[in-house]
Amino acid sequence: MCTEILLVLLGILLLIRIIFDAADKRKTFPPGPCWKPFIGDGPELRKLARKLGGQHLAFEALAKNYNTNVLGMQLGRRRVIVACAYDTVVQILKSEAYYGRPKDFFMNLRTMGTGKGITSTDGHFWMEQRTFLVSHLRALGFGKSRMEQMIRDEIDGFLKLLEDPQGYIDVSATLAPSILSILWTLTSGQTVKGDNRVPRLLQLLKTRNELFDMSGGFLNQFPWLRFIAPERSGYNLLKAVNHEIKEFIMETINEHKRTWSDGRCDDFIYSFLCEQNKSGKENFSDDQLVMVCLDTFIAGSGTTSNTIDFVFLAMILYPEVQEKVFQCLNKEFKRDEDISYADRIRVPYIEAVLLECQRYFPVVTVAGPRRVLETTVLDKYIIPEGTTVLYSIYAVHQDKKYWEDPENFRPERFLDENDNLISQEHILTFGLGKRKCLGDVLAKACIFLFFVCVLRKYKIECDNDTRPTGIPRPGLVLRTENYRAKFSARY
């Protein structure tokens, strides 16, 4: 009996200690919801996100409620901060103190249990792999005329699909394979046209996106749930999705291995195999190659195709902008003249429209996660080593300090009185610093070329009975609502 009483007292004392330690740490930590012992703020965050329509809106509401640019939370056992103001976000993106990646269950799931790749790694390994990827993609034509020709080839195929005799097409479903094909060609040297596996791969990537959120989700906060409720927690589905994606990529890698010879570097996979076969290159494993390919597809295909999708949707929602875009293109270019990415300087209004689309419809609303590598100070708050860091691109793009009327879609905000393009520094679509998006050159070229090649030839309309609202569907990457559009030839 005495032993039982003693154990109860020890348990109570331990709980009191945890509560007081948490309260003490909160004095120097950014403000936010009250930390609940053991469960943290996760349930409250999820409830608010469901109510408002997305995690980015929940973070914005909490930051306003606590009157702070840096929101402090506890999700499960992790301390998390969310930066919600431009100056604070820039400080994070440029400081090497924030260059780490969390070592948690979320990252374990993202990397299929390998801890490999580029997106989810840090330190020397990340720098080595990043340098290798960038240098070899450049050698293969990344950012050059060869890359632009790949984009043009896909645009030609995409344009043929627009004049559907049925009238209206599903833009998202039609666009996604084209963007994936560009990335697949750069990576593997192969085309996916006619490959009946592509719709399945796109569905797998979409499912994976929907199962994750930037804070790591329920499983990351309570990883033990996978043992109690593997189905309801989504763990079994994630494992199945990861396994199928890995099999898809490994099939292509094995095809390359069968045809590889020393010195053959026709595409990125061959280049990687060349490095893999050198002595002392243990960082160039099959698992690493799988994850680099997956990082490329996830970072490139979903964000780029969704951005273009939102651009087309914006033209439906704002027909006066669409008409002005057409007049601009009609005035600047001859009807049979090829438009290159370099020609963007001739059409500043087009650039302004694309910037406004990315500001108004940021497909990545909350970015990260980062891990603090050493205790540091941010906006007068002490951020301990190991803290997980998120930053809200949505909050920056809606900040009234920098945007006069952020709730309005107005491309002219990016033009001066002479219709010249002005500063774009407060647009954080592709990030800043050493960890900025590696594929920004490809993404920007895709967005511009798809947009101008479609808008100069077609008028985009929707069925008035099913007019889209413009409200995005939440996820790791925002997607447009389901809508169908008609592309009517202008000439």
TrEMBL record:
The keyword Phosphoprotein does not apply. Heme binds at C437. It is found in: Endoplasmic reticulum membrane; Microsome membrane. Its main location: endoplasmic reticulum. Belongs to the cytochrome P450 family. May be involved in the metabolism of insect hormones and in the breakdown of synthetic insecticides. This is Cytochrome P450 305a1.
